[in-house]
Specification:
The structure holds two protein chains of two kinds. In chain A, 67% of the residues lie in helices and 0% in strands. The radius of gyration of chain A is 18 Å and the shape is globular. About 4% of the residues of chain A have low confidence. Chain B is rod-shaped, with a radius of gyration of 48 Å. Helix content of chain B is 83%, strand content 0%. By secondary structure, chain B is mostly helical. The chains are: A mainly alpha, B mainly alpha.
Amino acid sequence: MKPVIPDEQMTDAELLFAYSKGDVAAMDCLVGRYRQAFFSWFLGMTGSRADAEDLFQDLWVRVIRNADRFENVSFRAWMWQIARNLLIDFRRKKKPSVSLDAVEDDEDQPLLEQLVSPDRSPAEDLEQADLARLAMRAVGQLPAVQREIFLMRVQGDLSFSEIAETLKIPLNTALGRMHDATTKLRLIMAKEMKK
Amino acid sequence: MSDNLTDLNEAGVLRELAAFAPQVRDGFARIGGPSDSVLDAIRAEAAKAAAERRRALRLNVVFRRLAAAAVFALLLGGSFQTYQRYHSNNAREQTLTLLSISLATQDGAYSLSDDTSELAHLLLTMQGLDQESFFSVPDEEAGLLWL
């Protein structure tokens, strides 16, 4: 079989199909495409880099092992369903911390302390980092049901219809939870900024 | 009407979200993604699974070819057997036909039929025997039988 050179223009389903026919580079492409979305979501939901990495790896192992069973559904929806199931199983085994501020990762440094980007000037970066830290802290204080939807939208870039379908809830419920999340975030950030 | 309300709500929610989304995205971007060791592990798993699938596919091809060869051999064997049977049936019929022709030329009274008693009589005659004389007892012997 001729190897297919994976192209950034290829759809997710095409990349997965190419992988199921033996093109390992196609899987690399897929992982790169969704790396930030799923890792951020796992990180936001567990508060731990180690747990987020474990879940992220488990997610892709499941995708790899079931690549030839994938049929005519949305690849993104399929992956999010797997991700959610993994998180549910994880929660059953271990009660995760919800605060990104308090939980330390393997390097013994709170996650929010790592919010420094080398690409900006120190002053600029400090301001940006402060804002980011504030926002992340606020997200960490959201209830899990709101945080889940919030991160699916912000990090996963899912539409509200896709979110509703993945969570098997009505569209209005998804919208309602998001509205509640943004209201709470506003309150938390206002309180934090007053400090 | 309810669709319009949903659309309006969705637009409103998206507007609210726009106030926080950039900072949250920035925050996660700063934290970064999974480590290289995790990505390497995923790559290794992908390569291993792909190799297993290739191996399974090759075995599948071998088994299919063996199965096709077996079916061909069976068909060939069956055809040969059928041919042989036909040939031997044909030969038997030819033999019987020749026999009836030869008997007809010897003695016009006999003709081939499916009646087995006639066939038995025919066989006895071929051997120089006839049914009546085979089972009859000569007079002198008959006399000896009476005590």
